[in-house]
Amino acid sequence: MDRSLMLGLPILLCCFTVLSGSLLHRDDTDNEIIVQEDNYYGQGLQIIQCRMCHLQFPGEKCSRGRGICTATSQEACTVGRIFRKDGTPWLTFMGCLKNCATVKNINWGVYLVNFNCCRGYDLCNEML
């Protein structure tokens, strides 16, 4: 694999992790339960929970950063997927992301990156 791409992957994943705020709430346990009494935040904006996984390779379970994050009013649940140019899945990551935007087919060397965002319901990024 191209050395520059392998050096760029940690940078991409680090940016995602920092933006999602998950460095502050990192927990490598297999199961994490978050209980909230109030399902609304601020002025009627719904708080949602998002599935979180920093690294998941095709056909495998989440290998780093598995858990649940709570999206603030400025955040959304997101799923990022990296594909080889031939369409073969290579890596998936998910979590909470501030100023999330759904974008398709960002060129990253020999890879394409897709980001999908949602706020419709708890764990909405599991099915994206």
Automatic annotation (TrEMBL):
The keyword Transit peptide does not apply. Residues 1-21 form the signal peptide. InterPro entries: LY6_UPA_recep-like (IPR016054). Residues 47-126 form the UPAR/Ly6 domain. Keywords: Signal. CDD domains: TFP_LU_ECD_PATE1. It comes from Otolemur garnettii. Pfam families: UPAR_LY6. This is Prostate and testis expressed 1.
